[in-house]
Design goal:
Blueprint: E1 15-19, E2 22-24, E3 30-32, E4 36-40, E5 46-48, E6 55-59, E7 66-73, E8 78-83, H1 84-87, E9 92-94, E10 101-109, E11 114-121
Antiparallel strand pairs: 1-4, 2-3, 5-6, 6-9, 7-8, 7-10, 10-11
Domain Secretion system C-terminal sorting: 47-113
InterPro entries: Secre_tail (IPR026444)
Protein name: T9SS type A sorting domain-containing protein
Length: 122
């Protein structure tokens, strides 16, 4: 039987991060998975509070380099979008028009790169 696992490190360090699984059998015996290295450049999009009611605060390293913000539903459809001229220093997004559910916030930068994070509207 194959199982899939996921893990979010809420405080990764910039540079190399190393992870492995400890797999415990029903009889108490265990084994470790292979070590996996994840490199992270220290850039991170963060949102709070999460879950959010009617306003989502956003923390981006350099707002002057943001080209566009998009909110997508769980199916990946864009349901809200704001371009850099519309953002003009606002570091939050009103969520009153969104139904409760899971969403993805995507920040696109002027250099073509992007970051995504999940948030929950209740």
């Amino acid at each position: 039987m194959q199982n899939n696992y996921g893990y979010s490190d809420n405080a990764p360090i910039a540079g190399n991060n190393y992870y492995r699984l400890k797999m415990v059998d029903r009889d108490g015996t265990f084994a470790f998975s292979q070590l996996r290295k994840v490199s992270w450049d220290g850039k991170a999009l963060s949102v709070f509070p999460n879950p959010a009611a009617d306003r989502l605060e956003m923390d981006v390293k350099d707002w002057s380099k943001v080209a566009k913000m998009s909110v997508m539903n769980a199916s990946g459809n864009v349901i809200a979008e704001r371009r850099s001229a519309e953002i003009s220093g606002e570091k939050h997004m009103q969520l009153t028009s969104l139904k409760p559910g899971n969403y993805i916030l995507k920040i696109e930068y002027l250099d073509g790169s992007s970051e995504r994070t999940h948030f929950v509207k209740y």
